[in-house]
Amino acid sequence: MNLLTVVKKLGLQEKEARVYLACIELGSSVVSEIARRARINRVTTYDVLEKLMKRGMINSTNNNGIRYFDATDPANIAADFTQRARDFKTALPDFKRLRGEAIHPRIRYFEGIEGIKAIYEDTLLSKSEILNYANSREIREHWPDYDHEYVERRVKKKIFLRGIAPKDDYGATVHSKDKENFREIRLVSSTDFTFTNEINIYDDKVAIISFKDTPLLGMVIESLEIANTQRDIFKMAWEFARW
Q1: Is residue 10 part of a domain?
Q2: CA distance 64 to 45
Q3: By CB neighbour count within 10 A (0-12 exposed, 13-18 middle, 19+ buried), where does 83 fall?
Q4: What percent of the chain has pLDDT above 70?
Q5: Residue 61 is part of a domain; what is its CATH number?
Q6: What are the CA-CA distances from residue 205 to residues 105, 181, 217 (Å)?
Q7: pLDDT tens digit sequence for 62-108
Q8: Are residues 150 and 200 in the same domain?
């Protein structure tokens, strides 16, 4: 790998990149040594070092009146750039608003049992816990191997699930196996709450599945604002569900 090219991609000019690499090779050194290694004259090297210090890529110390320069650890620089990129990505919606762009959630539609399975497959990519409103009976009647083909995989991936479900025979059975299946289910009255639809909230997504349509229908809405609002609503429902 050409390290000069890699360093220049950080936004450095040719001479700046050469001086930084020279400092890494030499360790703590005086300007004259760095200039020789970078093949740049001493005056220019000093100017370049001052610029790199302002960018946090070079440090300097004084020892008996002699100034020494050393390169900042590349790992620290990489972490700094990673954080900057993460902050910039997080701010993208604000940039869009600044430009007057409307921000619309992305919505994907799915149909049939294979489409529904694709939605569940997407939840297995979740970096957050899954919050879930579900009828324990509905999914298992349409997908008899659901526990083996989905639940076991979710457990293996250590994706925790908190769910609210009707208190019927299916709900009670599922609830009784919470600990081994890496989840916590709270039950509500099956008379008052039937939940013929299922909702899963994870990451910046909300997945909605309808089991009463023919064929089965589902959608995944990608929107951080919508997902966070649904999380807040789930928290209220979670406090209500005490069984």
Answers
A1: yes
A2: 21
A3: exposed
A4: 97
A5: 1.10.10.10
A6: 10, 22, 17
A7: 888 899 999 988 888 888 888 888 888 887 777 777 776 656 788 99
A8: yes
Q: For the chain, give the number of residues.
A: 243
- How far, in Å, CA of 17 to CA of 6, rounded? 9
- DSSP line for the chain: --HHHHHHTTT--HHHHHHHHHHHHH-SB-HHHHHHHHT--HHHHHHHHHHHHHTTSEEEEEETTEEEEEEPPHHHHHHHHHHHHHHHHHTHHHHHHHTT-----EEEEEEHHHHHHHHHHHHTT-SSPEEEE--HHHHHHH-TTHIIIIIHHHHHTT--EEEEEE-SHHHHHHHHTTGGGTEEEEEE-TTT----EEEEEETTEEEEEESSSSS-EEEEEE-HHHHHHHHHHHHHHHHH---
CATH number of the domain within which 163 lies: 3.30.870.10
Same domain, residue pair 49 and 144: no
Mean pLDDT of the chain: 89
Q: Is 80 exposed, middle or buried (0-12, 13-18, 19+ CB in 10 A)?
A: middle
Instruction: Give the pLDDT of residue 100.
Output: 66
Token pair recorded at residue 126: 């979740």
pTM of the model: 0.58
Torsion 29-32-37-41 (CA) sign = positive
Given this model, what pLDDT does residue 192 score?
87
Amino acid letter, residue 82: T
Peptide bond into 166 cis (omega under 30): no
Nearest to 181 by CA among 203, 227, 150: 150
